[in-house]
Write a structure and sequence with these properties.
The structure is a homodimer of 337-residue chains. Chain A has 337 residues and is an alpha/beta fold. Chain A is 46% helix and 15% strand. Chain A binds a DNA duplex (30 and 30 nucleotides) through α2 and α4.
Chain lengths: 337, 337
DNA sequence: CGCCACGATGTAACCGCTTTCAGTTCGGCG
DNA sequence: CGCCGAACTGAAAGCGGTTACATCGTGGCG
């Protein structure tokens, strides 16, 4: 493997010049820049990130901490972030805590601190003040997606209002018996996201002076399977069933729709369903939903992290400003029978 | 940030001893090991990976190159690999080529060569001889998942036989008009996976002396949406429709089932569907499938890479031996009407 | 025509750790 | 009681870059 010295030798200049020519820092005459480029090319030289990082303190590598990668939202954000990073010439180091607490532990106590990262992006993770402090002490920028962490730049949608909007849509169609499908259990420890949406739903119900039934607020862990089960159980009760569901994720909405169909109910005839996400499959299910562009959230987080690195501190108050969402009306909602 | 020197100073030993004590390489008395441990703890010392890698040549970091992260198979393998790596104390650097050729380009021409990786795992990617050579020249172990790359350790399932088995299952139930849903377009460039399964299907049909209709072999890019469309089109033709589908992925099988239902057809009454994958949602759809444990494939690849690193070259002929799969009979298949 | 400022380069001091090599210490043994 | 090897430990030489600082020409200007 060619090292910078080989290139310097081949180009007939010093290693300093090679470094400057290749990295673009500092002045180099066009002539030597060209010589260096040619020599490097010829030798198939690629700088050693380790050496470079060690010497300069910059590693062109950012860390992304995700709770899982199996959920639509997470994998889509990841996809968006990965794409943005590769374009910026950065490496992406992925930390998947995967619900396993020991993984989460080691991620924070070790991995992130190993000084190999220029910045870290967290996805729907609630950091304890201690963890924030740990990250802070490393002095690397942190940007969070989907949750408000004190003192940290954040990308997030307005969960409360989104959910309220979803509920209001159903209410305006004439529904009164509206259930809510949330997902908290697993991530409750991590974030109040589930409950922000739940709060929005309750708020809308209150505003419309509709009763909120405890037994119609169910937790399905954001999964299709969970939603299917829960919805089936609720709909199976012939005494009193909701005419509509607000689902905190599209994946759960799919579960709701499938459950309804399996019980011989028509969507939207017998049951209206609204989701939140903008999942690709939504179209296929005719799902009315509130779309959030997850991929762009990932890309935005990367942009923000990069900006912070560039010193461009373009931080206005990071707390202000929600990521935009879009109401997508399709065929899973209609006035109740 | 505390450096190894600070720890040495605090512990009253040399940096060499600190290094040995913390890394476990070389002999250190229990006494000094303890002193070092305590000092390190107190100072919140964490070794600098960059410095360590530079000096030792090992970086405790492996690269994973994936074509996308939005597909069940890919994200599940990723999840498995990530988990195994975190347990091994390794970092995971993710390269998502995402179908974008320019991304793939830069991944191979630069990222992988930056000497920050101890090994690389590729997922369903066909490497050109030149790319293999590039990787080889870096001297790092490469293990591939899902595809045979000459001279490289590979984890893969027996696509041909799996597909044949799926078809045979339908044939044994009495089906004669069996269609095949494959997905090649996007990944065809990368791998013959799609066609290996297609070949298996055709082989089974041939063996049973059943005709293979060209118009019943369709490509849906492994996506649910694609499958939905294609299957809808095929089933919409009242003149002659298949009574069963072999799908090269569960996600496509879901699309097929949804399409059938939307046309008012009963599954399995009017249409039987077999998938390949073992997707979590399979249960919900009652999908008969051939399950491959994707997460374990990821973990296996990691284990193999780690073994190669450990010098344990446990490579018997890497070509031999398929990853095990399991036939899961559920309710989406039955004898034809 | 001499001096100065500025651009282009080279020298060398790190960056923070690993590892070789050369001691030092000790206990055991002849 | 002297010698030897095993067990530890420390000094120092890198690993492959980056960058502050010194050096060296030059063209512009007084």
């Amino acid at each position: 493997m060619a090292s910078i010295k080989d290139v310097a030798l081949a180009a007939g200049v010093s290693v300093a010049t090679v470094s400057r020519a290749l990295s673009g820092h500092g002045k180099v005459s066009e002539a030597s820049r060209e010589k260096v480029r040619r020599a490097a090319e010829e030798l198939g030289y690629v700088v050693s990130y380790n050496a470079s990082s060690l010497a300069s303190g910059r590693s062109r590598n950012i860390g992304l901490v995700v709770p899982s990668v199996a959920r639509w939202y997470f994998s889509t954000v990841l996809e968006g972030a990965a794409s943005a990073l590769i374009d910026a010439g950065y490496d992406l180091t992925l930390y998947n805590t995967s619900g396993q607490d020991r993984h989460r532990q080691s991620v924070f106590s070790e991995l992130l601190l190993r000084k190999r990262l220029d910045a870290v992006i967290t996805l729907t993770l609630k950091l304890s003040p201690q963890e924030v402090q740990q990250l802070d002490s490393v002095g690397k920028p942190v940007v969070a997606i989907g949750g408000l962490i004190p003192g940290i730049a954040t990308i997030r949608v307005d969960d409360f209002n989104i959910a309220a909007l979803a509920a209001e849509h159903l209410i305006s169609l004439g529904h009164r018996d509206i259930a809510f499908l949330g997902g908290t259990e697993e991530f409750e420890v991590d974030f109040k996201l589930g409950s922000a949406r739940e709060d929005g739903y309750e708020y809308a119900m209150d505003q419309a002076e509709l009763p909120v039934r405890r037994e119609w607020i169910v937790n399905a862990d954001f999964t299709t399977q969970g939603a299917y089960q829960k919805v089936r159980n609720i709909l199976a009760n012939p005494r009193h069933r909701p005419t509509a569901f607000v689902c905190a994720s599209d994946e759960m909405a799919f579960g709701a729709i499938l459950a309804a169909r399996d019980l011989g109910l028509d969507v939207p005839g017998d049951l209206s369903v609204v989701g939140i996400d903008g999942h690709e499959l939504g179209e296929l299910f005719g799902l009315t939903t509130i779309a959030q562009n997850a991929a762009r959230q990932g890309a935005s987080a990367v942009a923000k992290a990069l900006a912070l690195l560039g010193g461009t501190e373009l931080e206005r108050d990071p707390t202000v400003g929600f990521f935009p969402t879009e109401f997508v009306a399709r065929s899973s909602t209609s006035p109740p029978a």
